[in-house]
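To: structure subgroup
Subject: Chain for Friday's discussion

All,

I'm putting the inputs and outputs inline so they're searchable in the archive.
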Amino acid sequence: MARPEDRRDVTDVRRLAALAHPLRTALLSHLMAFGPRTASECAAAVDASPSNCSWHLRQLEKHGFVERAGEAADGRERPWRAAATGFRIGPLDDTPAVRSALQILASVQLDEELRLARTYLRHEDELDEPWRHSAEFNAYGLLLTAEEVHDLAERLDALIRPYLAPTRDDVPDGARPVHLMLAAYLRPDAP
């Protein structure tokens, strides 16, 4: 059953720092895509041990990113789920500590994006033809103002939100978890 949309703002640099860890980012991404999972189920997906996942899930729980998702069916390991259907960064003070935490988090998130894309490419031949041909790897060179970048991101977000796994209630047969990454930033080689 779909959950109502619940996007939460991350406005504390300590919460940013808690999320800026490769395994925590991978765990949160996995839970947001697949819904409630045990630490053992997460471990298989993120290539870590169940005990390590359990420890990092508890750290994410301390900072409000994940929560327990009811009782375990077998009475042993309880599942975890994302505490919200999305997280927004900000508003935050423009301080060196905040800028550093944001840069570290963005770097960790980019590493996770590359890990997922490379894993997909390694296993692409194992997929059915429609899924192999549905993948998109595009890049665009745009000329925008800073305000236009923000506006474009807002408009794209509005187009994407109806398809979010935790909130989608009109899931067609054959739908599977798909990862979408969009990034927009001033090219580092721009004059």
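Points worth raising on Friday:
The radius of gyration is 18 Å.
The mean pLDDT is 93.

D.
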